[in-house]
Write a structure and sequence with these properties.
Number of helices: 4
Structural class: alpha/beta
Shape: globular
Oligomer: single chain
Radius of gyration: 15 Å
Order of helices and strands: EEHEHEEHEHEEEE
Strand content: 25-35%
Length: 176
């Protein structure tokens, strides 16, 4: 898929934990991380997330097409309906968003969606913010119960120190 950019955009603690629970609204991440997340995803114009991540956010993110992956198209509890709800495997979903004109995709969570995209072999970039904290919980970036089928190599593109307490953002490119 020439010209296609698929980025995983995530924030973790120093152990790789992305959430304290299924309903975590990521209130623990820094203001600087939130600003960078907004800048990256606004440039893309499209965010893909799972239903639980969408419900934790509670609303569509303004200025971006909000795509929610869900096997059950009608289960949105206590939140407004997203722009687009899709089901299917990652390659089918990517083809659908390409057909409506998007070639820069930001995948923003959660764990299952990150893992599915990683396994698809389509991911080109990882934008990973590491907050200098240790969170309770064990919801990691990738699902430890699903095996990764191959070793994936990354090349560091950029490191940014986002604030004085030591929040770091690492931009990696996947090598194929």
């Amino acid at each position: 898929m020439i010209g296609l950019r698929i980025r995983l955009v995530a924030v973790t603690d120093v152990r790789g934990v992305i959430a304290t629970s299924e309903n975590d609204q990521i209130a623990w991440s820094s203001r600087e991380d939130k600003e960078l997340f907004k800048a990256i995803t606004l440039r893309s114009g499209l965010v893909i997330m799972g239903r639980k991540t969408y419900e934790a956010i509670g609303r569509p993110l303004p200025g971006r097409l909000n795509v929610v992956l869900s096997r059950s198209m009608d289960k949105f509890h206590g939140v407004s309906i997203p722009d687009l709800v899709l089901s299917g495997n990652v390659k089918e979903v990517v083809e659908k968003v390409k057909k409506i004109g998007y070639n820069d995709i930001c995948v923003i969570g959660g764990q299952s969606v990150f893992t599915q995209f990683l396994e698809s072999g389509l991911v080109t970039d990882l934008h990973l913010t590491i907050e200098p904290i240790v969170l309770p919980g064990n919801v990691n970036l990738f699902d430890r119960l699903k095996s990764i089928s191959e070793k994936l190599r990354l090349r560091l593109e950029k490191v940014m120190k986002l604030n004085e307490i030591g929040t770091l953002n690492l931009h990696y490119r996947f090598e194929r």
